[in-house]
Structure formats: C-alpha cells, structure tokens
Amino acid sequence: xxxxxxxxxxxxxxxxxxxxxxxxxxxxxxxxxxxxxxxxxxxxxxxxxxxxxxxxxxxxxxxxxxxxxxxxxxxxxxxxxxxxxxxxxxxxxxxxxxxxxxxxxxxxxxxxxxxxxxxxxxxxxxxxxxxxxxxxxxxxxxxxxxxxxxxxxxxxxxxxxxxxxxxxxxxxxxxxxxxxxxxxxxxxxxxxxxxxxxxxxxxxxxxxxxxxxxxxxxxxxxxxxxxxxxxxxxxxxxxxxxxxxxxxxxxxxxxxxxxxxxxxxxxxxxxxxxxxxxxxxxxxxxxxxxxxxxxxxxxxxxxxxxxxxxxxxxxxxxxxxxxxxxxxxxxxxxxxxxxxxxxxxxxxxxxxxxxxxxxxxxxxxxxxxxxxxxxxxxxxxxxxxxxxxxxxxxxxxxxxxxxxxxxxxxxxxxxxxxxxxxxxxxxxxxxxx
Length: 433
Prior knowledge:
By secondary structure, the chain is mostly helical.
C-alpha cells in the first residue's frame, strides 16, 4: 500500500478548486482564455502572411506589439494596485471582446485590411497587458496562503492545456472552414472568460493604495531589485529564456538537420506535453519549502535538457529532451509563482505582476534573436547546445551571487511570514461558504 500512497501523493492537488468558488472561476476562465488566445495566436501571423506574402510583415507585428506590452504592462500593474482587480478584469474583458469581434469581421472580408490587423493587434496586446497583472495578482486572494503552490500548479495545467490544444484547433479551422473562424473562437473564449470574472465577488484593496503614476511604478521596481530573493526569480527566468530558448530554430532543425519537415509541429508541442505531465504529477510540490533551490535545480535541468536537444542523434530523442525541458521549465514556473504570491505584499502585487510579465515576455524575444544569430554564424545544433550550456552557467552564477535566493525557506522567510500574518489578521474566507 505504501507505493500506492506515494503515487497518489504525486497527483495534482485539486483542493484549491474544490474549496474556493472564485478560484474555480479564475481557473476555468484562464483555461478557456488561453485556448482561444492560442487559436488566434496561430491565425494572426498566418493571415498577415497570406495577405502580404512577406515574412518581414509577420515579424513587424511582434515589433508593433512590443512597446504596448512594456508600457501598458507596467501601467496595468499600477492600476491593479489601486482599483478593484475583479472590476478591471471585467472592463478589460469587455474591451477584448469588442476588439476581437472587429478583428474577426475584418478577417471575413474578401480583402482583409492589413492596417486594421496591425491597429487592432496593438490594441489587443495593450488591453491584455493592462488586464494580466490583475489576473495574476488576484489569485492569492482567492485561496488560502498554504494552498498557493497547488493553485499555481492547477493554473499552469490549465494554461498548458490551452497552449497544447489551441494550435491544433487553429490548424483544423484554417484548413476546413477558413481563418476567420479562428478569431470567432477567440471571441467566444474571451466572452466566456469575462462572464466568469463577472461572477466573482468584488476584491477591494485592504488599506491604503497607491494611485497609478510613474513614481508608483518606480517604487515597484525598487522593491523588486532590493529583494534579493525576489530578484533571483526574475534573473533566472530571463537567463533561461534569453540563453536557451530554441523555438525559432525548430523549422531549420526539422528540415535541415533531420530532413523531416513534416514533424516540425511535434517539436513545437513536445515542451507542452512535458509541462502537462509535470503538472499532472505536481502533488509533491507543496511539500517543498526551499523554493530558491528548487527553481535553481529546475532551471539547470532545463538548460541541460536543451543542450541534449542539440546533441540528439534522432528527432525523436530531440522531442524527448524537449519534453524534459518543458517539464523542468514548468516546475521552475510553479515555484517562481509561489514565491511571488506568498511573499509580495498586497499593496505591491499588481506592480510586481507587471514586472514579472515583462521578464516573461522580453526574455523569449531576446532569446529568439540570440538563437538566430548564433545559428547563422555557427550551426543550428551549435546554437541550441551552446544556449543550453550557457543557461546552466547563467543560473549557477545567479544562484551564487544571490545567496538570499538560494537560502530562501517559505517557513521562515520574513516576507512570507508577514504575508501569512496579514492574511490571518484579515480573516478572509475563500471557501464556498
């Protein structure tokens, strides 16, 4: 019976979803939102390329989205620390629904307008950047402090499920009924998610808030930099994505290295499969207290797995290594989220979520540039393997330089203790009752 209990202990813990109605609403809304988002994420560049025949125009969409992502992500974090986060979720959700309806209508035209695509795309990324800090910073208010790790794992599972299923749906819709229906699916997902947010109870701030301002945003940055344990979570994530993200090389890896271009889609999905497996077996995570060490070990494992991808003799072994990389990255992400949600004070949580969103977004963009330049100057295999090894070195140097991050213990960390005390003093109820 011992082995059965041990296996049962690995299963993803559903307790937060069972006990908290509002967390269930957040989880369902987030899963549907990510699924719809991935459908349009695949369709949008496809539509631009179909109408222009230009890879440069496809790439320009990312450039157009970058500045709104940075500006409105920071501003959205500041807003989340001042207004009711649930109300901000609903307001942004309504705006997203309207914008996606316009994008869908344009896609159904005989000659879709490229200008409309770029303008609405920039507006959608702006509204999404404003909304996301509220969604991320609201999660700790919906579950008990000791359930945050399990809640992060469940939310990660929902997101990864959307990332895995969404592109498949997009491909089927494009091939059968037309690209416009991809945006209809995203429209329906946004509408459903907004309805779920509207069903949540209000979440007014406890105590005095900081009105959105440049000074308030700067205060968030200062707090993040001064907290060495928190800084480690950002730097390790950036190191992993900037140095070891190989996605941009997948077409060349499948076509030129393995001469199996028909399998390129499996390369894209391999990491997601690994992440889903890791989340399904995440029951052990809430028993870990040294989160800094767990993040360091997981990020190191990610770098090693990516290095093995570049060395793999067959594409199937490369996929296996990518699955291991996805699992390690998911473990790191869950523990990073746990540190953020268990230690950042309520009054700062939105602004820090905005900073986290930037680290999550800017790292991959820089990583794509690095991988492409190294591959052209050296080789595809060399770019992937060297990136993985550089990630291992970067993670080790970060952990060595930030001793507070490596020594972090959720049971004794003063910030985690303060948050537990604040939650207990507030006496918040997060259950269905």
